[in-house]
Design brief:
The protein has a six-stranded antiparallel beta sheet, with helices on both faces. It has five helices and six strands, in the order H-H-E-E-E-H-E-H-H-E-E. It has helices at about 1-45, 45-65, 110-120, 135-140, 145-155; strands spanning about 75-80, 85-90, 100, 120-130, 160-170, 175-180. A hairpin with a 7-residue loop joins strand 2 and strand 3 (about 100). It is an alpha+beta fold. It has two domains: about 1-45; about 45-180, no CATH class. About 50% of the residues lie in helices and about 20% in strands.
């Protein structure tokens, strides 16, 4: 009689263990997508970065009204040099490596470089014109995370307007779509 009780306890322990493992599996399968969505929501388009992207938009509008406006399509990278000056380089469909932003009258100005690097704390700005998308040269030069953000936001772009995507130093992203 003792042997049958041991068998019953063993079978009961196995059944309960399988049930608990199944329960944890069910919870994990449902929790991990929530965590991923939370990370996306916290890094993509949070209020502070949306505000900063709109500051850039307002400054671009003022620049356009003052006729100091020429915005190049492509990826603009902002870095601080050893002498504390800020440099801007860009990649577009014609340039497969970073070139100085000297031709880009807007982002090459000291005012915009300081605004973008110091005030907005942005390191990369991707300008996408209308429905052209981004070239392979640009895709090859942006980080995996920025590319994922671009793919995440692409269906939301207004194809009649220019879209500016920003990658900030803190790893967060935002975009603004307007008729520039």
């Amino acid at each position: 009689m003792n042997n049958s009780k041991k068998g019953f306890v063993l079978a009961e322990a196995i059944i309960v263990s399988v049930f608990i493992v199944g329960l944890f599996t069910y919870i994990a399968v449902n929790i991990f997508p929530l965590i991923t969505r939370y990370k996306l929501a916290s890094n993509y388009n949070n209020p502070n970065e949306i505000y900063l992207s709109n500051v850039l938009y307002d400054e671009l509008l003022m620049s356009k009204q003052n006729k100091k406006y020429k915005l190049y399509v492509g990826l603009h990278k902002f870095t601080k040099n050893d002498d504390s000056t800020i440099s801007c380089t860009y990649v577009n469909s014609e340039h497969d490596q970073y070139s100085p932003c000297e031709e880009d009258e807007t982002f090459s100005s000291n005012y915009f470089k300081s605004l973008i690097y110091d005030y907005l704390d942005a390191r990369y700005i991707l300008v996408v014109y209308k429905d052209n998308g981004i070239s392979q040269n640009v895709r090859d030069n942006i980080s995996k995370e920025f590319r994922q953000y671009y793919i995440y936001q692409e269906p939301k772009f207004d194809t009649n307007n220019t879209t500016i995507l920003l990658e900030f130093e803190n790893g967060k992203y935002a975009y603004v779509t307007r008729d520039f």
